Amino acid sequence: MRTLVLNAGFEPLAVVTFRRALLLVFTDKATVLAADEEHPVVGPNQIMPRPTVILLNRYVRMPHRRNLQVSRRGVLRRDAHRCAYCGRSASTVDHIIPRSRGGADSWENLVAACHGCNSAKGDRTLAQLGWKLRFAPGTPRGTHWFITELDRPAEAWSPFLRSAA
């Protein structure tokens, strides 16, 4: 069971277990905004609904990381698992300027690609093939793009995620 933690400004901060969420609520560090009535938490003295969304009582300042580490998962998430060349579903990562030609492992040089496009491109450049990118790749932006659990959000989270976007 997962619980969405919202910062005091209502932006998504993290996803934690319901036990961690209960601890934050019991220590008066957070308040429950949404709870699951069907699967209550049964304690020795009380029965309470399981929290699905909590709001921190104090604002937690998130440090801005200027140098976000490049990763395969990060590139696929940034590109929404869509091929940068044809738009089909992507499961691999491709270097725009091939590594054999001095291309770096950077956010600007890596894009998601389908197997067909990645194989067809090989170690050639886009100019040699006459291909164009569907978008300009860059470092991901936003306050909560790195929370991997938001790829498959719970239904109870949707009103809180729409307000933060």
From TrEMBL:
Domain of life: Bacteria
MF annotations from Gene Ontology: endonuclease activity
SMART domains, per the entry: HNHc
Keyword Ribonucleoprotein: no
InterPro entries in UniProt: HNH, HNH_nuc, NA-targeting_endonuclease
Entry keywords, A to Z: Endonuclease, Hydrolase, Nuclease
Domain HNH nuclease: residue ranges: 70-119
Bilayer-spanning residue ranges: none
Pfam family of the protein (one): HNH
Identification of the protein by name: 5-methylcytosine-specific restriction endonuclease McrA
The species this protein was found in: Paeniglutamicibacter kerguelensis
